[in-house]
Amino acid sequence: MKLLTCPMNGPRNIDEFQYLGPVRDDADPDTASDAAWARHVFRAANPPGRLLEWWRHVPTNFVFVAERDTVSNDVIRTFDPATAERP
Amino acid sequence: MVFRLLKYGLSHRYPVTGDIPATPDLKPRYDVVIIGGGGHGLSCAYHLARYHGIRRVAVLEKGWLAGGNTSRNTTTIRSNYLTPQGIAFYKEGLELFAAMSDELDFNIMFSQRGQLTLAHTEATMRAFHTRAEAGTYMGTRIEVVDPKGVEALCPELNMDYGGALEILGGLWHADGATARHDAVAWGYAAQAARCGVEIHQRTEVDGIEIAAGRVTGVVTSRGAIACDHVLIACGGMNYHVAQMAGVELPIRTYPLQAMVTQPVKPWLNILISSVSLHTYLVQSSRGEVVIGGGSDPYQLYSTRSTLDMKEHLAEGSVHLFPFLQGVRVLRQWAGITDMTPDYSPIMGASPVTNLWLDCGWGTWGFKATGVAGKRLAECIATGRVPAILHPFALERFERFALLNEMGATAASH
Amino acid sequence: MTRLPAPFGSRIDRARTVAFTFEGRRVEGFAGDTIASALAAHGQWMLSRSFKYHRPRGVMSMAGHEANTLVRVGREPNVQADLTPIAEGMVVTAQNVAGSLAADRDAVIDRFGRFLPVGFYYRTFMGPTRDAWQRLWEPIIRRKAGLGVVDTDVPARTFDKAYLHCDVLVVGAGPAGLAAAVEAARAGADVVLCDGEPELGGSLTYAAPDGASATAAIAEASALSNLRVMTGTLCNGWFEDNWLPLIQGDVLVRARAAEVILATGGIEQPAVFRNNDRPGIVLGGAARRLIRHYGVRPGQRAVVLAGTPDAFGVATDLAAAGVAIAAVVLPRPLPDHDVALERLRGAGAAIVTGRIDEADGKEHVGAVRVGDDWFDCDLVTVSVGQAPAWQLACQAGGRLGHDEATQRLTLTLDRPGARLAGSAAGHADHGAVVADGRRAARAALRALGRDAPDLEPPRDNGLVFAHCALPLDPDPRAKDFIDFDEDLQVKDLINAVAEGYREIELVKRFTTVGMGPSQGRHSALATARTVAAATGRSVAATGVTTARPPVGPETLGVLAGHGHVAERRTALHARHMALGAEMKPVGAWWRPYLYGTGERARAIADEVRLVREGVGVLDVSTLGKLEVRGPDAGVFLDRLYTMAHADQPVDRVRYCLMLNEMASVIDDGVAYRLDQDRYYVTATTGAVAHVYAEMTFWNARWRLRVDVLNLTGAWCGLNITGPGARAVMTALDSDIDFTRDAFAYLDGRVGTVAGVPVRAMRIGFTGEPSFELHCPGSLAATLWDAVMAAGEPHGLRPYGLEASRVLRLEKGHILIGQDTDALSSPDELGFGWAVSKKKPFFVGKRALEARRRLGFDRRLVGLTFAPDAPEVPGESCLVLRDGAPVGGITSVAHSPTLGHAIALAYVHPDDAKSGHVVTIRGRSGAPIRAIVAGHAFVDPTNARQDL
Description:
Number of strands of chain C: 49
Largest sheet of chain C: 7 strands, mixed
Oligomer: heterotrimer
Distance between the termini of chain C: 96 Å
CATH superfamily of chain A: Folate-binding superfamily
Structural class of chain A: mainly beta
Strand content of chain C: 25-35%
Strand content of chain A: 35-45%
């Protein structure tokens, strides 16, 4: 069982967490074309390499961001976006 | 048949057929470059060379032939989908499989044993009815069966569980089949090579060259090649390779794990799966029970295995067949799969002229090995996308016109 | 009987005889014997028939490394006879035989091997007709496939799981592992030492070099309180972040270790020559295990293949056990062993230079040929070196390499938290192995933040002769096996390369080499060398196939564990049971399906009529219940749901509809504004977990000042509904005024009922006057009892889920997930009224606008069927238009209120007008006429709910 370090609860088994997908760029619903909005809805970063992504610690309902390498599966860092500067 | 066995037995030396030629030097130019030496890419190469007279074709494989999901999948062939468009396509795929051994003169061990999917909830039963109604309308052999029917089809199943594990019924897809996955790729490779197709193993693509919105070549680890057409058919790496051409696909990459038991004498004659337990089982012709389930929960390009998935698959298997408690797991493995938002593939044109897509197959591409290759060869040869592929266009994601197959794919592969 | 006296037989208790049967014959062994050792003691070497050619096979490693020893024990197939202890009354039988082990009719296949070359099945079995494979050939092949027989009637047993945490987990209790564990424990670390063998010591228990002993280390390991010893425990895999399954009998222990030391030792390799699979041809280690562990004299007259100095230890043990040594075969000079050779020569052994070229003997080895000389024997011991036990290390990211100078496989592992020690790391000399164990422990201690100075890398003089690479030229008459499990010979691999399968993974797939139960333990090195020679590559460039978990076979039972299924019950479960309800699972929840008895359709209709004509009560406790609190609660709901909630008055309840980002409907419920900053929001039973997560997730991005509390499991709910509902409510002891004017439709009130704090809402799914009371679960039974008592004079009875579904369908209320699918937009459902046109933003709004512009191709409508319709379609039946499917039935039921069938269905938008006739394809395939109606079949003007 892989470990993931929750910024609030520390390292926990990864089956305590829910994966919420890659962090996406914000798109402006008022200016985006229909097709551009559709791309925003359906496309997400999927690089073989570093990825910023949302996770939720289910028992405590705490949502945070992890930076993970999608090839090695190494977690580079996790942080609470409310208190950390997003890169 | 008997003659062939005698040929081996009575020949002084082993009569080499030479299925896969050694990787030749790269030529400076090809008509078509196919990125990905898996079943789909090889099938497309074969169809181009055999039926469209296009023989200057190079298949590029970064590792070894068919070493990706072609050799890692659990070999379910079916057409029990939800939408008429989906069924029409997969039905053609199944028909090509049935004829494939003859077509390729290579025994792919196609075995139409039927697939039984189990329902433990009323919602699943409803979904089964939807598939059965659409399937029978399209002329496939598919029906919803009650618990008695389930028991008749698979007497070994434990029917005694109550509650959430009670078996309410099943979906019996008599057309469901299995085949030897490697043989499919090898058969296509051997026949494509005989038609002049070049297969380049250990040849990785590093870039796709585009001029004026049209594909002009690819850059490989062994040098650059010019070409008129490129097909992207590289499974879990599709998102990454398409990006080389500036095409951002709505794809996320997830591992799919499976495991196999030690060989035991055949006892399971059908393909069986349970939607609620996320488990499916098929016994190979070697006697191994191949067990698979759902994808991993997060994006990953690694084929590592996890203990949790193995425990989960074991639990599901033992729920269905308690006597499997004493059967031993031999090996677990994983493939990396390219999943689209509607769990349906993307086939046909891309925003770049002559850059063709055979992507987004997720966890169920094996069943379409023949038909995807055949239809994409048609695209490349004619420059037009045939109607049967229209529902699978990349462009559907800009029109919110997703294929309503969600649910048809879970734990069935 | 070939038993030796003590000190031979360290594992057996000669005082305790244990009897079992093998192939129907009674066999006596001693407590501590394995099946294979007890049989060997009686001269029974043959244990099985091989997979393909049905050749006789017996013990080769005595370490569970090969499929040769797989037998059936009782009802369990594929049990390893060389590892499994005997038990009184055990019934052991051979597998994969036609007839009996001794007289296997399929043994004839062996003579036709030349007709069955590698991969032959890909080129044959295709005629004479297209389906010949499936109809004719596959059934024959399938009968020959597999090894053991699964008993499909065997009853289930109980397995269990446990957890374990430690600082350092040492895998392997041989000299390196023992040294590592003791070193780490001395420094104060929390250490676990595990080994699959029944005792500590590893190879020292049967193959100790002169002067080497584990006694001191074992004594210390047993005395250290912070060192947990787990013998008989198989570490069967390495998974991310040092998560390792330790199998102890029927228990799967999942261990998390900060540091792992893999002291997994080596795997002794066989030699390849014609008939190298005959029973009686064993690895040197197997002979020594038989002698030392089990006191079994493994033969009368032996030939010793001495590729490595290990052979001299084997010869010494054989001599001590009274085995005559016919010949010592030296493939290469072994300097420094002249004295030992002279001693053997003096004892009568021929010392011959060369290799074993072939073996003879029908069911047991009878002689071997070296060059032109034959040597009679009934035992051949093979010592040609070891491969490092690479499985765990490779799973942890380690790599196998090949050292051209010494012709051996090398193993490296470079990963934080895991390291190799001892012979797994390539050491051969006993001193070096022990020193390397200590060194690995020091490194692990440093990684744990402890002060532990590094030790000098050990000097190792044994490596030069540790491996002996014999030539792998194919024997012209074959039967020179590289893979015993799969009956693969040298030529098979060469032929695969000739066919173009030049990559090691393709060779594996084409020939199945390494795919059998031993997973390449004995074949990987020989395969790599054969393929390297055939392709002109180096062994290192050829490589070996990927090592996958598990290390050794593990049962599905131990992996599955106890298999308990979690279920959820509402606080009223006991009440429902007492009332004789038929309970059904809905997801994890158990809900009353029906209370009545007798004929089902009638009982359901009775419950429907109860609500339409009197008053009924439904347990709605499984509904999702979320409390949204904070100054931005209204704004938050406005962004999440399609209707307006920020301007919703306090004490009012409003429908809420949730879309996803592509504007598909994913949930609905109601939001009750408790006060300015507090809403009580319901969600559907199946979706609440998702809705709760979505709320949190969105707010991680929006950062509004709200907090969401999931009360689903903590609170219960009852819905009292029917024309008689108000009479029941007003009869209750409550501070809430339930009269019509005081408590209007979609009002909410907080108060007490029968002393129970409640949240009351005028909402319902039935279209009748309805009151929903929510209260803490601990008080739900009190509330239920009070409601039942107050309702008794009014004929109040509970009704079940099925009647509830009919009641809602009569009103045309949709069920999310049943009447909607992944693409259903509010427009397709006719839910325009539930979507705010004024709000600047809500989740899904932008996509909804885009989808509106693109148009939609279906609409959800009500359908009615004539009371005398010959066939009523079932759920999911297709709606056809000009013969083509345009939609399908999502819900259908017979309406007891209306006396005919009603349904919800997707139809073409042009048909979505009341009165249009559509055609349904019935289950039988026959067309059925239906008339389009509005959603609400009963009381379309909604007059009744406000009675």
